Amino acid sequence: MATLIAPDHPSAVEDAEALQKACKGICIDILQLDHAIIQKTLLNNEKDLIKKLSEKWLKRGSLETQRENSPKQMATIDVPHQVSFLEDAEALRKACQGWGTDEKAIISVLGHRNAAQRKQIRLAYEELYQEDLIKRLESELSGDFEKAVYRWVLDPADRDAVLANVAIKKISPDHHVVIEISCTRSPEELLAVRRAYQARYKHSLEEDVAAHTKGDIRKLLVALVSAFRYDGEEINTRLANSEANILHDAIKDKAFNHEEVVRILSTRSKMQLMATFNRYRDDQGTTITKKLLGESGDEFLVALRTAVRCFNDPKKYFEKVLRNSIKGIGTDEDALTRVIVTRAEKDLKEIKDLYHKRNSMPLEQVVAKDTSGDYKAFLLTLLGKED
Amino acid sequence: MAPFLLIALLLVYLFTLNSFKAKKMGHPAEVEVLSKALSGIGVDEKSLVSILTKSHHEHKRSIRRGCSQFFFEDERQFERWNDDAIKTLKGEFKRFKDAVVLSLMHPWERDARLLKKALKKGPQQYGVIVEIACTRSSEQLLGARKAYHSLFERSIEEDLAAHIKGSERKLLVALVSAYRYEGPKVKEDTAKSEAKALLNAIKNADKRRLIEDEEVIRILTTRSKPHLKEVYEQYKKISGKSITEDFEAELFLKETIECLCTPHTYFTKVFDTALRVDANEDAKKALTRLITTQEAGNFKGVSAKFAHKIEERVKGAYKDVLLGVLARGEMNGQV
């Protein structure tokens, strides 16, 4: 039951010419290539042409890697210097074919590619095999491993949109996930999340957040999610002073849901907020987060505290989320996956170091103890473990 | 012979006396032209040029004497310009310049500056914030927010939230922060239940102000425009009245609904107010704002409706701009 679609009167010469033409220049636009020609080429094992194609893909891959080469010192994933998207797509296809799945192969490819590369691999896979890599992976994998790989392969903005949607649609919504996303992403990133959310769910993010929450928590979350903060470095010290006082008064009167508190937290720029929190600490002798500790039943207060902690020191916040997810009996796989997948390309290294300092044990060790199988292998790869 | 000569001289004298008198009172026709050229919206540049080029000192004096709305007799015996009249004139001459500057500006910068100005001017101008937030597309509004960052080094929601103290703060900040879904998908059931929620809010309006009702704010500031149009229809079905009628008491809510669901009604209203004889400066400025910021297609039918008034009240180059924009609207409905 072959699925190959080949022309009626194939001409080897013409095909070869077409491929040669497509390979001219620095990059090939794989979209220009006829599917039939590619499949035929690969099936017939025309090694020279495959090699040429691979080389072109390689060049394109390394161009991509160069562009991505910003000092991502704090990322944990280990990305090779040269990447061939074609080869990667082939490897993934092979891993998914036949009975069973070669999870190790999937981990070894995807676990070592950054966001831009993963996107190219998806495109190459789509072109070569006319199917969505993600859908294929969804059907081949299962459980926590599948969830983790699914989130990993998505574009960061799309991923955040999915995380937000899952959090909102729960019977008891996970406010902290929504807060985490709105407060730890940059203004432009949050905007991209809102766009991705609309494309995926045909509703705006704020619409769904508003429709699934009530009262004070709704006010806070909708405001946080709709913010498009100024992202400059300027600070107004007089303003920081007056707003630190406003926060102090609200906290003193236990009027935490005061409009002004929500206003300040949801509109001011991050730099301005830091200045305000620092001022608060200087004036009151204690950090604002300590003052926001209260009954855990007060969900608004908890949300407020989460937001402040995300602004103040996101790495410390993530370290705590990780710590809470693996300590004690049982593991919160959702939280563990979420932090590792969303921070692996950003600052997971620093978070790991923080964890080690705080718990006198490396994070990898605890993850290895608390998880198993392919899920464990994948997480450890993202954490930067050498194969 | 001599008596004929005398009579002739007498007649000539009488003639010149009469013409002197006429000059002293100002040529009524020119006084009328001047008054017309300087009243209404914009100025009739052509007529003004023809009057100004009459350099005769006496002539100008007689014009001054004839135009009592612009000049008055000063105690030291000279005809003096009325200061208020000069101020009004400044505004009218400025109208064309504002139209030019605004229309050439990038839409993002335009909206950012308009928002800042409206905020500065205070509550009577907050309607402009509603207009901009509700009549722009999601991407345009986003662009305005970005431009605001560049121009003023703050976010618009930051400034609005910090400066607006009253109950309209929630509404305005939420309107400006919205990034509405723009697709056509609408769930009829949700629209029905939200129409009911709005009706409920109206019923309890004496207990809780509409503008402070959580559900009202949520629906109006997060739902997509197609969805809100459906809510508008459903509301009419269950209550017999339109939402705008029932929300009459809360001006900002009413304008929000109008701009989101029935923008044409809103634009017609702005035109109507601006072209009235007793229109104030804000109303006239609204005219410039609309014709330089809205898609021309939003004004279909306006030129027919207001043709007579425009002819009467609007003058000069500004009138050409207005008619030009409206004509383009009739043609193809796109900028």
Description of the molecule:
The complex is a heterodimer of chains A (387) and B (335). By secondary structure, chain A is mainly alpha-helical. Helix content of chain A is 69%, strand content 0%. Chain A contains 23 helices and no strands. The model of chain A is unreliable at 1-5, 25-36 and 58-71 (pLDDT under 50). Chain B has 19 helices and 2 strands. In chain B, helix 11 (188-203) crosses helix 13 and helix 15 crosses helix 16 (263-274). The A-B interface holds A 191, 194-195, 198, 202-207, 210-211, 214-215, 218-219, 222-223, 226-232, 234, 259, 263, 266-269 and B 142, 145-146, 149, 153-155, 157-158, 161-162, 169-170, 173-174, 177-183, 185, 214, 218, 221-224.
**Averaging pLDDT over every residue of chain B, what do you get?**
88
Number of strands of chain B: 2
If you average the pLDDT of chain A, what whole number results? 84
Largest sheet of chain B: 2 strands, antiparallel
Number of structural units classed as domains of chain A: 4
Top CATH class of the largest domain in chain B: Mainly Alpha
Runs of chain B in which pLDDT lies below 50 for 5 or more consecutive residues are none
* Spans of at least 5 consecutive residues with low confidence of chain A: 1-5, 25-36, 58-71
Q: What is the number of E strands of chain A?
A: 0
**Total discrete domains of chain B:** 3
Q: Cα-atom Rg of chain B, whole angstroms?
A: 27 Å
InterPro entries (chain B): Annexin, Annexin_repeat, Annexin_sf
Keywords (chain B): Annexin, Calcium, Calcium/phospholipid-binding, Metal-binding, Repeat, Signal
Protein name (chain B): Annexin D4
GO biological process, one term (chain B): response to stress
Keywords summarizing the entry:
heterodimer; A: 387 residues; mainly alpha; Annexin V, domain 1; 4 domains; 23 helices; B: 335 residues; 3 domains; 19 helices; 2 strands
Entry summary:
Chain A is an all-alpha fold and 387 residues long.
List the helices and strands and how they pair.
The complex is a heterodimer of chains A (387) and B (335).
Chain A: H1 12-23, H2 35-43, H3 47-67, H4 85-96, H5 103-110, H6 115-129, H7 133-140, H8 143-153, H9 156-169, H10 175-184, H11 187-201, H12 205-211, H13 215-226, H14 237-252, H15 259-267, H16 270-284, H17 288-291, H18 299-312, H19 314-326, H20 333-343, H21 348-359, H22 363-370, H23 373-382
Helix pairs in contact in A: 1-3, 4-5, 4-6, 5-23, 7-8, 8-20, 8-23, 9-10, 9-11, 10-13, 10-18, 12-13, 13-15, 14-16, 18-19, 19-20, 19-21, 22-23
Chain B: H1 2-25, H2 28-37, H3 45-52, H4 57-66, E1 71-73, E2 79-81, H5 83-104, H6 107-121, H7 126-135, H8 138-152, H9 156-163, H10 168-177, H11 188-203, H12 214-222, H13 225-239, H14 243-246, H15 251-261, H16 263-274, H17 281-293, H18 302-313, H19 316-331
Antiparallel strand pairs in B: 1-2
Helix pairs in contact in B: 2-3, 5-17, 6-7, 6-8, 6-9, 7-10, 7-15, 9-10, 10-12, 11-13, 15-16, 16-17, 18-19
